[in-house]
Amino acid sequence: MALLEVKDLKVYYPIRGGILGRIVGHVKAVDGVNFTVEERQTVGLIGESGSGKSTIGKAILGLVPLAGGTIHFNGEDITRYIGKNRSAYRKSVQMIFQDVHSSLNAKKRVLDVIAEPIRNFENLTKGEERKRIDELLAIVGLSSDDAAKYPHEFSGGQRQRIGVARAIALKPKLIVADEPVSALDLSIQAQVLNYMKDVQEELGLSYLFISHDLGVVKHMCEYLTIMHNSRFVEVGQREDIYNDPVHIYTRRLITAIPSTDIDLKEENEAKRNALSDEYNREYDNYYKEGGKVYDLRPHGDSKTHFVAMP
Amino acid sequence: MHVQEQELLLQIKDLRTSFRIEGKYHAAVDGINLDIHKDEVFAIVGESGSGKSATALSITQLHNMNFTRIEGDVIFDGTNLAEMNDRQLNKVRGKDISMIFQDPLTALNPLLKVGFQIEEPLVYHTNYNAAQRKSRAIELLTAVGMVNPELTYNQLPHELSGGMRQRAMIAVSLACNPKLVIADEPTTALDVTIQAQILDLLRKLQKEMKSSIILITHDLGVVAEMADRVAVMYAGQIVEVGTARQVFKNPSHPYTRSLLASIPNVGENMHRLNAIQGVVPSIRDMEREGCRFSHRIPWMSAGTHEAKPTYHEISPGHKVLCTCYQHFYFENETRKEGDK
Questions:
Q1: Is the ipTM of this complex over 0.95?
Q2: Nearest residue on chain A to B191, alpha-carbon basis
Q3: What are the pLDDT digits (tens) for B254-287?
Q4: Which of A194, A227, B15, B129 can bridge B72 by disulfide, Cβ–Cβ 3.0-4.6 Å?
Q5: Distance from CA of B123 to the nearest CA of A (A)
């Protein structure tokens, strides 16, 4: 049984117009996606800005109302309870945010930042709480002296590690990580990703890893979903996607990554141009009218690799 | 290639840019020497806080001069920009040297039509009349790949997508056929497919116009795809400089090697990334004696560094700061040796 099972998820944002602010239409941010997250698995959600990938993360956390579809967690349909304040589900699913400068309360000490979820759900004495926080700080490579400091005293990478510590404070089952390293420098990004992997092994976590960086996603995720125009265009194991990308959008995305291998410079540019021409020429073969993405169907006789093709 | 034959366009000599913080000046750029040739793409790469943007803004003195001190010479096409006042510099800014900024939404004026903003440098720097300016603007919009240049000419920045905005920004910067374009993180705010398009466009235009580009970025992939030569900056200094081929084929300074090792690569699988310990020091508490990278590679003994680091030329045009590159190994490499 899958840890998280999302079926036909739809999220529509209202467009308001007129002086009364009536709803005049909807933006279909997520328009029917299915996926599962197994225990201890990392699922990557990739797409460009505006593709709807962050909305999926928000929907799973109950931060936006669903327009349709169901979410099952541990076999239980939690679609109706998802926004309820102190449900067990809230405790089991946590989030790591992109912007390390706005996601930690600047007026709170690190101790209080990390203790907040614990205080919401558990009755610990001061001593027990402090002990738990020291453990959490140790997991992400910070010292217990750091608990008394304020977020501004830390660098970007350390802040993101505090964010990780807060997310794992309640020993959740699933963490939604929305672009956790895209605001960080390269060397710092590596630190945070390493800690995220360590934490996963130690606590047996699952991640839903939302990112636009295909290099980072390949490093972190076993299973990938590629999103475009509010729907999945291709899903599969890491090897399926990187070794045998089928949908034109996936192929474009992969060839667009600048490579540090200087010998491939000309070759990559030629590939990109050829694909760009193909994209313009064959767009109608890959998308329905109005850019809508087809339903997913298995690629060949693969059990893991699905592509949205007619 | 023909490094020796190339003509010099810009020479930066011992540039030192300091910012005043609480009454004291701290150098963000600490003694940089650079030669930029005609018709080349020169990349400056480094993490945030390494001083790469501060260097670029110092060339035409775009810093707020109330709390910035710029020392050293910036010789552009035979004249020293460092000795010029604001009025003289305004004749160069936007004409011979122009800039492309990271975020086109903030760099473009949201209240003015795209066409007007492209014409603005033409008003200052040329004698074109209104009709000539408009035809030049349309020509530029076509050159940067706008599907409908006549329409875009009359649009406001918010009506364009991110990629289109950056194209408009490029059109503005190319309006007066500049000899040097300084592109400060031109694609960082863009999606990867759009980034590829913008980089291809920049390279194509650079070849056509035979101007030089100083490309500032933190993305080593972008550097490898775009640059002819590269300077790697760390803590206000250039730690390694050479042709792109030299730096990527034979990365030598520990910082360059560590950066390359910390990229999650699409090509290969690895379990752990090579993170660099610690952080880039802030300019206020930067150690200014000795090798500045030494505290991030603490397993290297002090004897491997120079007391006063100098540049070592390891092949023609490929220079590395400090002697620690000769002995450098990654921390986990020793562990492997220890296991055996």
A1: no
A2: A48
A3: 999 999 988 887 655 566 788 888 778 888 888 8
A4: B15
A5: 36
